[in-house]
Design a protein that fits this description.
D-Maltodextrin-Binding Protein, domain 2, 9 helices, alpha+beta, 15 strands, 2 domains, binds 6-O-phosphono-alpha-D-fructofuranose, Fructose-1,6-Bisphosphatase, Chain A, domain 1, 5-stranded mixed beta sheet
Length: about 350
Amino acid sequence: MSGQFEQLVLPIGTTLDRFINTQQSNFPFAKGEFSQLLRDIAIASKIVNREINRAGLANIAGSFGAHNNHGEEQQKLDIVANVRFTRALKLGGEVCAIASEEDEEMIDTGNHNGKYVVAIDPLDGSSNIDVNVAVGTIFSIYRRISPAGTAPTQEDILQKGTNQVAAGYILYGSSTMLVLTSGAGVDGFTYEPSLGEYYLSHPNMRMPSNGKIYSVNESSFAGFPPGVQDYIRYCHEHNFSARYIGSFVADFHRNLLKGGIFMYPESLKSPEGKLRLMYECFPLAFIVEQAGGKASQGGKRILDIEPKRLHQRSPLYIGSAEMVESLEKHLLLDRVRV
Ligand code: P6P
């Protein structure tokens, strides 16, 4: 066929499925089980995507009328997303245990031969759904520590961030994207609903080393550590743009593409910070480092933290490496000053 016809019929790209198969060498643990686990997550995300898009019509928007174990008001879609992802992982058979934001205790899936455990925030930022703002799913994948064939233990779930074998998020935004790493870079896939497939749209994503966007809820400014207050003043003085959507995955994704820093410091209101280590900080810290960025607790690398509790929170400073380093310098200067 001549070139001009080829131009008319552009290829639609590589599906997530084919990517996983052809990239097997990049997925250090990608035997059949690991690839199947990623497929299980992708399938659940397609169903959740459909339910988010029709929430207003199907009476599944709004509050569920209960509170989760963090005292946060549960949205109907929090429950729906939690059921969809945990059910997909249970039925998929590859996962022996799940830590979900929506469940107080670790879930024993009953798949005691499953090699993997998953930590997941099924729907982060769900309170934004009623106002049609982007929300996300965040997940981490670990290899179990306890022997196959036995019941999973807390040790299987409470692993350091550096033990992750893969991490990703799905952003349900103007388009739905799945962003994934398994330790060999970061790749983004855009969902084509008419075909029901994710297609590789952002190969080898890199976080700009610097930027001029800072994301923080400045209403808590008075309670921030002085070093953070100094850094925010630095952003003001250098005419940085303040961008804060109130949906972590959306803020992170914009900064990943454009450069920037997201901050959720400890404050009087949130003495440990707000974001949870296992299924918010760790997965996005893995992704950001794989894309060339940094994720810090303010003086310690997020991925090096030893989790003690399933729903442990942590202060979080994540994004362009030079911006995170500048924030850390402001914190250090403050400590030296006192
Ligand atoms: P605040 C959503 O509830 C969330 O967990 C993140 O997605 C978001 O970045 C943060 O909380 C917003 O918290 O206290 O600024 O409303």
